[in-house]
Amino acid sequence: MSPVDPGFESPGGSPNADDLLVLRAVAKTGYFSEAAHELGLNHTTVSRRITALEKSLGAHVLVRTSSGWRLTDLGRRAVVAADSVASAVSALTSETQTSRGISGVVRLSATDGISAYIIAPAVAKLRETNPDLNVEIVATTRRASQIRTGLDMEIVVGEPQVQRAEVIELGEYELGLFASREWVAANKAPTSLEEVLRSPLVYFIDSMLQVDDLDTPRKILPGMRDSVTSTNVFVHVYATRASAGIGFLPVFMAAEHADLVRLLPSTRQRLTYWLVVRPENLQQPAVAAVVRAIRDAVSLAQPFLVGEGPNPFLGAPSEGLS
Length: 322
Hints:
By secondary structure, the protein is of the alpha/beta class. It has helices spanning 17-29, 32-39, 43-57, 73-100, 112-128, 181-187, 193-196, 216-220, 233-241, 251-254, 279-282, 285-305; strands at residues 62-65, 68-71, 104-110, 133-139, 153-157, 166-180, 201-203, 226-229, 246-250, 260-277. The longest helix has 28 residues, at 73-100.
């Protein structure tokens, strides 16, 4: 154990298991208020339990940062103990959970496209037999975080370089060049990359792009001038439909819009979705179930994601890949 913090009196006995579970919730969410909501407690109770835990251990388990509470070295060791407590409770109640279904809150982050087209229908189907399961989806495009405060798992583009986490390859998706039929009628469809380079580009904001793999299209199209750019891929789709220029779009998103025309089909880029999850989170039945549901959904949708099949969650042929 770390030396006793000089700001504390001598440790006051063994830590309380409930206090450890409260710390675990704070470590997951990063905030007392969110941990309180998840545990069905109030903010004051969470604060009191953390104080009691620190008193029993004789040192701080959390430090405040600009992005919420972070674990100290002692806090990380305490969370390992809390995970063991949670696993033991889960084992004791597994039979009951099987009869009642999975319950709890699972929070994940993923890019806009896969969040809407794959993850949302996958977890909706999972909830049909597990109505007490709550899945929170944070739509964002970024690298996997080394410190996954507040998240049970992350889905990112490009192979992540992280430690102390399971990294699972989910599947590929394809980017292609698209323009609206109206834009093509007014400007003529380009027949070469040289002609594409003279056209305005609809894509991510270059200065704000955090994912190296998503920068590859700009290497394919060097010097192409920006038109409408955004951190949100749905903006790319709708700006392209509004004739803002040529969009480098996921083919599975463009496929549902008959007013989009694919240009130079040989100009394409395939990127890979990866899932990042801590091993201790996988021990939680709710997290494990959501991971399985997402993996199954991506596998089922793989032809759709690369523009070679219909959307399996809509049951209707895709349109707009002419």
